[in-house]
Amino acid sequence: MFRNRVEFLPSFEFFEIPRSAYKDIYHLASYIFDSPSAKIEILKLPNILGTSLNFEFSGSKTEERILDHLGNTPNTVLELHDIPNGFDLDKQVKAHKPKVPEYMIVAPLQDAKGEILGILCMHDNKTISVDNRQKQAFKVLANQTVSLITLYQEEKRPLMAQTLVDNKNITLGNFMEANDSANWRFDTAKGHLWFNPLFFEMLGYTPEELKLESVDSWIDMVYFFDQDRFKDTWQKWNNNELLNNELECRMVHRSGDIVFVTIEINNSKINDAGKPILLEGEIQDVSTQKKVWEQIELINPKYTSVIQAGYNWMAIVDSDGTYTYVNKTLESALGYSSEELIDQCIFNLVHEDERKRVINYFSKFLNNEPFISKPFRYQHKNGTWKWIEILCANLMEDPMIQGVVINARDITKRVMENKEIKASEEKHRLLFNASPYPKYFLELDSLRILDVNNAMIQFYGYTKEELLNMNATDLRPKEEINKLLISLENYRIPKEIFKSGVFVHKKKNGELVEMDIVGQHIYIDGSQCILVTCNDVTENRTNQIAIEKQNKKLREIAWMQSHIVRAPLARMMGIIELFYGNLVDENEKIEMLDHVYSSALELDTIIKDIVLKSQSIISKENS
């Protein structure tokens, strides 16, 4: 998959991008075209052109066709079929005689300014058929590839005013993992509890070392003196009493140390009876904040722990949030001078989506409630947004301070990195759902169906909820289950793409269909899974059987022509030879003519039978 150059496009150079990014693009293209033999190239424009297509170019005819397309219709993809080997190569390249693909599709890599950076090219050594939806998906993939290229080129540069990522549109959920927050989910019907790996890291374990599959096992990890409060809160959440949606408690680290966490419930799904069937939320490690909080005394050597924790922006505000002091670090980080901030309200520069929440937390803090930082966006002087996290110390009573000391740290980089992860997941999701082929994610150990695309729902006739409560055996008739289990054993040997073969599947209405199955390995939440792609080949198989039957009849006709027809014809020809040689006397002529007549009748019957069988085959082909 990774080569030094593309021999049939010698003037185009490879873009320098991380191997992992290239692999992501390769897999996404595989989802689009469903061709295991397809190859993907991410190529720069020829050096002589730069980003301009107006210079005269001397290269192969295929390259000229690509550049001509980019110059005239840069917003569309280009398809090339049946490219003759050696037909369009210049003299220098002809000597090498590179193998030219049977099929090629090219999408432009065009940046936000409209400049062409290069091309995204998929080629295959066999001719494939691509519909409009696949072309559109390939164009979307090209646009996402431009973002990956630009990010890679920018990653060593400092974060500037014109950032590639528009962080104004990030939701709070996008940075949970980047901000030491883990996800949890509880299925009340099955009693199944799930955490993402970050939660286990908080406690010093791996998911394999610590099996937490029930609420009771979770409670066992809670500090003994906090367990009753945890149970009371959990009981309320389980009764859909979500007025207090956050719990702070202590948990025990593997080392025996105490870890302070806040457990928040942010999603609850209920059934028709009003009972929760699914609870979801996040867990945030606030140990650092707690330790800093215990030590934060402004005029005290212990205050350096705040700086060491990265909270090196400092400001003092009054009870209304008006700045009375800012330090130099905050000035340089946000671009404002102290004169511009003093007497201004701190909340005016908070993003409008988070402003109400931040003001509410600040008000609670002034009423002596603990302040646990929730990240929010704060506006830089140049108009961009910084994600920040803050700690507060109420020193209103201090005669020297008379205000609230706020320490903040910039977490924009972590949030941006996490947004790229989320964006990549969303790209996979869009391409997964847009595929015309039924697809589903299968957990290899349990055979549970984890997710399905729209084509899967339409083809099999089940609702999404029904499919997610099924496993792979439910899609097969009983006699096919053993064949499935044998096939799945082969999947335990990791391969990027594995073609299983043809299996019989059963739709919801009982209809049996023959499906060609291709699987790709993927890990979801640490579990080995398979992305299964299904292709209905029932009609093809039926046609194949019909062709085999027709061929059998044609062989019978051929046999009749070569054997049955030959007998009466040979008799007739023998008698005619006797007449021709005047070897028949007058007494034998009548008998010989009777033999000729009977042989002619036999031959006529055979010919009619051949005609009837031929017409039968033709009528079945037309029906």
TrEMBL record:
GO MF term list = phosphorelay sensor kinase activity
Q: Which reaction does it catalyse?
A: ATP + protein L-histidine = ADP + protein N-phospho-L-histidine
Tell me which residues make up the PAS domain.
299-369, 424-471
| SUPFAM superfamilies (alphabetical) | Homodimeric domain of signal transducing histidine kinase, PYP-like sensor domain (PAS domain)
| EC number of the protein | 2.7.13.3
Q: State the InterPro entries in the record.
A: HisK_dim/P_sf (IPR036097), PAC (IPR001610), PAS (IPR000014), PAS-like_dom_sf (IPR035965), PAS_fold_3 (IPR013655), Sensor_kinase/Photoreceptor (IPR052162)
Pfam (any one) = PAS_3
| Coiled-coil annotated residue ranges, if any | none
Q: Which superkingdom, per the lineage?
A: Bacteria
Alphabetical keyword list: Kinase, Phosphoprotein, Transferase
Record-given protein name:
histidine kinase
